[in-house]
């Protein structure tokens, strides 16, 4: 549901459903990784680089070595939000802020 609302541009509802998905006890590890990854991109789209980084980091920590292709594929998929965030940070006058997304 979160992905549907996100694609429709309703980020508040998307966030709500993604957060609900994290609380589903029967969710598999790969599903939790996907939700954290989706939350990361959602936060990038909303301009919250710090929260985006937290969720991408959590997704990365949960993926074990048996899924290297998943990490490699995700590294090149949907990178536009990251670069938009990076551009925003570079346009600010302080380098300290840059560390949020790196």
UniProtKB/TrEMBL annotation:
<feature type="repeat" description="TPR">
    <location>
        <begin position="1"/>
        <end position="28"/>
    </location>
</feature>
<dbReference type="InterPro" id="IPR019734">
    <property type="entry name" value="TPR_rpt"/>
</dbReference>
<dbReference type="InterPro" id="IPR011990">
    <property type="entry name" value="TPR-like_helical_dom_sf"/>
</dbReference>
<keyword id="KW-0472">Membrane</keyword>
<keyword id="KW-1133">Transmembrane helix</keyword>
<keyword id="KW-0802">TPR repeat</keyword>
<protein>
    <submittedName>
        <fullName>Uncharacterized protein</fullName>
    </submittedName>
</protein>
<dbReference type="Pfam" id="PF13424">
    <property type="entry name" value="TPR_12"/>
</dbReference>
<feature type="repeat" description="TPR">
    <location>
        <begin position="33"/>
        <end position="66"/>
    </location>
</feature>
<keyword id="KW-0812">Transmembrane</keyword>
<feature type="transmembrane region" description="Helical">
    <location>
        <begin position="81"/>
        <end position="101"/>
    </location>
</feature>
